[in-house]
Amino acid sequence: MNLAGYIFKRILQTIPLLFMVSIISFFLIRLAPVDPLAELKLNPSITQETLNYEVQRLGLDKPVIVQYGLWLKSFVKGDLGYCTTGEKVSDKLLERIPNTLLLTGFVILFTWLVGIPLGIVAALNWRKPVDRILTILSSIGMAIPSFFFALLLLIFAVKTGWFPTGGITSYNYSEMTPLHKVLDVLHHLVLPVVVLFTISLSGLQRQMRGNLLDVLEADYVKFARAKGLSENKVIYKHALRNAVNPMVTLLGFEFASLLSGAALTEYVFQFPGLGRLILEAVMKSDINLVMASLMIGTVMLVLGNLLADILLKIVDPRVEVA
Amino acid sequence: MANLPEFNDIADKNIFQSIMQDKFARIAFYILVFLYISVFLASFISPYSKEYSNRNKAYAPPSKIYIINEKGRLCAPYTYNYIRSFDKETYDTKYTEDRAHKYKVKYFAKGGKYKLFGIIPCQRHFYDVEKGGELYLLGTDINGRDNFSRLLYGGQISLTIGFLALLVSFPLGMIYGGISGYFGGKTDFIMMRIAEAIMSIPSFYLLIILAAILPANMTSVQRFALIVVILALIGWAGFSRVVRGMVLSIKKREFVTASEAMGASAFRTIVFHILPQTLSYVIVAMTLSVPSYILSESGLSFLGLGIQQPDASWGNMLKEAQEFANIISRPWLLTPGFLIFVAVLAFNVIGDTIRDAVDPNSRER
Known about the structure:
heterodimer, A: mainly alpha, 77% helix, B: alpha+beta, two-stranded antiparallel sheet, 14 helices, 6 strands, 57% helix, 13% strand, elongated
């Protein structure tokens, strides 16, 4: 099967999936004993027109099934309604999504740059001290609660004053030159990235190690050795290439767990990402915002998996659609 | 349950032996035993009750215990009370030791009444101070409650909630996967698509939303039970897929055909004949998922969506450490985080060892 056909088939598969997720989340949130407009009504700056518009858009005077249909229709059209603060939900999401993508992008980049080599080192030194130490370190990395680690780094930031303690930009951001703006954002990203990097590094390192160990046992590696190839050639030319393939699938999983794991870290660092948005929305019972960010989170997760699968197909053309 | 002996075999001999043979796993095992015994005996070990609160001693630092007196001689351990003073210029509350009065630390002394294990009425505490004295080993929190006592009581919740959630999520996942795999065809297709849909929702988002829709006016027991159920609702889907895969191959075996031929109902065949075959996998998967439940609960409580005050859990104790001012000048508030870390680490190390023992092909370690 060619690449385009594969991609097309995979995209077709995700549509019923998203549909089902929307049903589940819609009814889950409708279970809540909260009037979806209660907060909106309390806000004096919201006009009666906006309220009427929301009642119409959500079909609150109609049965639940119809409500779901209406919601789906306006969601597909990109109309997500208003937050309790009166802003448009879609504007708010568009403001937050790039931040979360930036954060997760950096984390994935660094975990791969560090995790893959460390996994290789551990596998090549199997059961030797280096491997043992890396295993212990990765156990420690996996066991630190993200919010606790974030708190510790926050103390560090406050005590040393080396890093900003929250947000993504400084107060004088608008006056900065473009170069300074980039540096400022990067400066704010350091601590959240360090937390998420530490947490997700361990899993990746272990997976790479396991994969390479498995591959080193395979017949074609034995054959390559038997041919009398140098050990370097055996490892880097034959074993490694096959060990990296399954890692590509892991990319999708990593993205998914980062999306979830980032929420607590974003919360502690006051980082304006999607995770903190949904947290705030949940606490304020801002139904529109909760529903929309839940769906967007899911869409991002599904797209992440899709991209990983497509990437895998490019790296390893033997893969077929399940 | 003809397969129980086989499962006991794995559970008792191999797994336990391999834990004991591995140096790290053995240490981890002892640490866990120590933690569980401590929280189990919380009411005996801690000098104060869960409800105790001294409003005049909010954020008191840990009491210092002296074993050398002013004359430089070794003596029985004693401590001083703290006096709170308020600096009108800096608006700081300061605690200084009241050197006028010494209070001896007493062991196995009579203190506040409690019920050991919830049944045996008892009055002895492992340690206490002389009357009038206050002994806060790890300082106090905003309400003047003893941090050390609350750590032990909080551990009762934090360390057991994961296991309770497992007792809900694993049977759910097994039965769901069992039905899906056994019936196959359309049932299987629909059930698995639903499971996939649940897996596609970022789990932490689902977790906080479920926790947020809980009604506010609940007793702490109800809340605890519902948090357990919510934790269980996360993660059963992925597990049920694996069980389904195993059931697909098990259902072709002769004993399943035999059970069907004898007229056993589908439910009976699934529960008594097919699912027991998956038990060894289930046990391992359960051990491996304990730490993630502990982390989920603490995260949820940290956000204020899980266990609520006045109940203690390690997560909600850390909630107070969210403010800079608190963590900088009151580092003792961070102790619950270290305990979560230690417990999760110990579970992970043991989990790795068990995985190795059960699946000799896996070379994760």
